[in-house]
Amino acid sequence: TGLNTLDYGFVNTGATKSAITYIDGDQGILRYRGYPIDQVASGCTYLEVAWLLIYGELPTDEELAGFDARIRRHTLLHEDLRRLFDALPHSAHPMSVLSSAVSALSTYYEDDMDVDDPEKVELQTVRLLAKLPVIAAYAHKKAIGQAFLYPDNKLSFVDNFLRLNFGTMAEPYEPNPVLSKALERLLILHEDHEQNASTSTVRLVGSTKANMFASISAGINALYGPLHGGANEAVLEMLQQIKDSGEPVSRFVERVKNKERGVKLMGFGHRVYKNYDPRAKLVKESAHEVLQSLGVQDDLLDIAMELEQIALEDEYFVSRKLYPNVDFYTGIIYRAMGFPPRMFTVLFAIGRLPGWIAQWRELNNDPLNKIGRPQQLYVGHPERDLPAR
Ligand code: CMC
């Protein structure tokens, strides 16, 4: 084919224009539709930001109220879909449960799947935003062996989600404003991040004209890996191992630098940020706030801060421009809220959902959209004949 350059990991390959998110990795800048991430994260709600990413502008009060009401109306899962969870083992990783259930949504809405009908695209959008948190909470309840609750649509988006996770049949759930605010902020910080691995997956699947449920289920699977969204769970495992082993933090860092097999500083480094990840700064602030207001003292936060300090002053990390990324401190907050580590990447998925939807829709509306189809350089056998039989 005349192909003579390869780009492993698509480090230098652009495949789309986009008007959604701007990143300047050298300066540590992130903006949603032009708005700086710190302003968005402190002044907006999750659904407002979802609207901003999907439709391009902040919603008016009326638009937001209508969007919120439509999403509330769609929170229930089909009863048969609730029973899908019975078929999966308690030990299943909640990310696998999440992608399976999202994929299964395609089976319930076959009449609303036309990707060229704007009304059906709206329905797919609203159904996903409404149902993903419910599916996520059921994945959690399944893992801990508790009964599923039905959503309570009087509650806000975030409180409804927290109640579905932490309420029980026996006890009414009391929303805690500190946790609700912190979770909302974390979700907003994850809402979009331009052409990362999961978003590129959503776009590649979407480029075939597959529906939004199928495309986003694929994105969830891409997010699952420890080099991507799975890093938040891996960070907590790493901190816990350091604590349990009693190994000094500086020794652990030496092992990372010696590239001991399987030892990496999880939650550090980024393909695009060659400066402090602006999201990590905000997450670190939240970690202190949440722990303080809950009156929790967490040794893992101390270990994380010591790791960060050693790494930021060490030549290995400095020369490679490795800084904490968004996943470094999130697990500590999620843990303080009561989520088990296996739920951390699921929370990332709920956060990222509006970005996946916005990117899928941008692609679907782009007249230049073509089926994605990378090339290869063939390095196998030249033509040969089957042995005579
Ligand atoms: N610990 C130790 N060394 C590292 C790390 C790390 N976390 N990250 C990168 N390096 C080294 C790497 O070994 C390489 O060194 P050398 O030049 O000697 O071979 C150099 O830094 C460049 O790294 P790379 O692997 O070529 O960079 P990449 O852009 O391909 O990978 C990354 C980016 C995020 C996958 C990687 O930094 C990593 O594995 N980090 C740990 C996992 C993690 O925290 N992922 C979350 C990313 S942020 C949000 C998200 O997507 O979820």
Automatic annotation (TrEMBL):
InterPro entries for the chain: Citrate_synth-like_lrg_a-sub, Citrate_synth-like_sm_a-sub, Citrate_synthase, Citrate_synthase_AS, Citrate_synthase_bac-typ, Citrate_synthase_sf, Citrate_synthase_typ-I
UniProt record similarity statement: Belongs to the citrate synthase family.
GO molecular-function terms, A-Z: citrate synthase activity
Family annotation (CDD domains): EcCS_like (cd06114)
Superkingdom, natural source: Bacteria
PROSITE patterns, alphabetized: CITRATE_SYNTHASE
UniProt keywords, alphabetically: Acyltransferase, Transferase, Tricarboxylic acid cycle
Pathway: Carbohydrate metabolism; tricarboxylic acid cycle; isocitrate from oxaloacetate: step 1/2
Protein name per Swiss-Prot or TrEMBL: Citrate synthase
